[in-house]
Design a protein that fits this description.
Shape: globular
Radius of gyration: 16 Å
Number of domains: 1
Distance between the termini: 49 Å
Structural class: alpha+beta
CATH class: Alpha Beta
Number of strands: 7
CATH superfamily: Gamma-glutamyl cyclotransferase-like
Strand content: 35-45%
């Protein structure tokens, strides 16, 4: 199993937590990142789920994230760990990616939460999402930390995400 790639657009951007042979910023066409997935197990609880990122299909849009080439010999263990990490409503999806170094990859694994999963929260105004984020915490920490770290990690890559920025601004300004 050589050259197995995984695409991260949420917490994997700053915390892959698995052995990597290569880490390259990447762009995924035809999707947008949204904080529409509930997190009952990492950044919230079943009673008060946090909000974490998923991908939503969107023509003529794109999502910046990070592609990880898995360390040879660790693929099976890493993919098993990712399946556990992404268990609450996420499913595997294979996507094509463009790496910032110009390479194109055809079959990259990512995880997406679809509207038919029980923890999908869907769209809401940024202030509503911000209130939910600020009031949720789980075993992986406060939901606000997740949003803050994702915004910071993307900014360090020179990436601005309008949806995340709107939620982040509402968090900082008292959810108005």
């Amino acid at each position: 199993m050589s050259d197995t790639w995984v695409y991260g657009y949420g917490s994997l951007v700053w915390r892959p937590d698995f052995p990597v042979a290569e880490r390259v910023p990447a762009r995924l066409e035809g999707w947008q990142r949204r904080l529409w997935q509930g997190s009952p197990d990492h950044r919230g609880t079943p009673e008060r789920p946090g909000r974490v990122a998923t991908l939503v299909a969107a023509r003529q849009r794109h999502v910046h994230g990070v592609a990880f080439r898995l360390q040879p010999g660790t693929e099976a263990d890493t993919l098993a760990r990712l399946d556990v990490r992404e268990v609450a409503g996420y499913a595997q999806l294979r996507v094509p990616l463009t790496l910032t170094d110009g390479r194109s990859l055809r079959d990259v694994l990512t995880y997406i939460a679809t509207p038919d999963n029980p923890w999908f929260l869907g769209d809401a105004p940024p202030a509503t999402i911000a209130l939910q984020v600020l009031s949720a915490a789980g075993p992986s920490g406060p939901n606000a930390e997740y949003v803050n770290r994702l915004v910071e990690a993307l900014a360090s890559m020179g990436v601005h995400d309008a949806h995340l920025s709107a939620v982040h601004a509402a968090m900082r300004h008292g959810c108005r």
